[in-house]
Predict the 3D structure of the following.
Amino acid sequence: MNFLSLIELKRENKPLAPEKIHAFISAFTAGKIPDYQMAAMLMAIYFHGLSPKETRALTLAMRDSGDVLKFPKDARPLVDKHSTGGIGDKVSLPLTPLLACLGFRVPMISGRGLGITGGTLDKLDSIPGYKTLLPVAQIVKQVQKVGCVICGQTDTMVPADKKIYALRDASGTVPGIPLIVASILSKKLAENLDALILDVKFGCAAFMQTKSDARKLATAMVELGNSSGVKTRAILTGMDMPLGRAAGNWLEVKESVDCLNNKGPDDLHELVVISAAHLLVQTRKAKNLNAAKKIATACLGSGAPAKKFREMLAAQGADLAAFDKKLLLDSTAPVLFELKSSRAGYVTYCDARIIGETVRDLGGGRLTKESSINYDVGIDRIARPGERLERGSVLARIHAADKKSAKVAAERIAIAFDIFAKPARIPPLISQVITAK
């Protein structure tokens, strides 16, 4: 094919026919188009964008570049959730077993973190024995038997996305909205879902810094998801402050277990419940959102999702005895340091970016895709905005590999907190809901 002519068309901001998009994605996946030419196309798309028709063609072509999950007929709807990533965002861990207990099947294909945002698979890798890489047949079998799975993308699922994402990272085209939409939805459409809830974050520690940009991304994904036969909604949530009280892979697993046992932080509980509630409404298992929230809250409080979580872990090879033993430890890192407040007052702000960068530099995140992860480091017992502190109260605890890194981390996160004599208004966790037109 004459790929150069297609690059020139997009360079001049002219539309690409859907069949041409399918053809060049197929050719690139097969190694018939060089990286430098695809990088040029990605840059042209970054600057000129794609129409909804072109974006849909790109997404479906990427989906069809590899295996698509196929499930037997079943009364249980196939649903999933996707977050654009944030600090302390461990919603997938308690939400997945909750959804399974609510009568859904959840084939959650997740990813790893890069930079300051943690990946769901990295959190699960901190669980002894847990396997995140499963063959397609096992994914389908487990979803049918257990009701849920959380695993990584196989080598044969959406291979076009893997190749294109690596080029986007190297060519500075990661932020292009049509490219983000195609990357996210190609993987979710490969799961053959009935319904999808998207958590699109905005703020200082989010991929989309402004609510306006987050709304544009959410709207594009909701429209494309629905036009592709998946009932799709999005919630816009703030990421100026961390979610929950823990950031760091193992520490977030512990907090997820607390949430499943009804001891977790309020904001995590709220986001888990509201995500489940939207899916109940989208699949007509509940008449409205208020009724759905009551159903989800009651189910989470029943203890059934906590048992389902353990069932999922066991199905994916986890050593539950070692897992339980690890849960009993106050810290699994060599050094535990308490950062204390130098004054009394109300916490009015906690900068999520500083927290995320500190966790990354402690070893809990990646600077590059090849970086190794220390699953035990992180920050927990993070003081929440709205909380009243006394002088000497714990602002946060630092779990570090050594005393030097703990000291450096303490100095950095001390400036993440604003403490004043009077409490400040805390913005709502969910800023807006984006539904199909």
In short: The longest strand covers residues 195-202. The chain is about 45% helix and 15% strand.
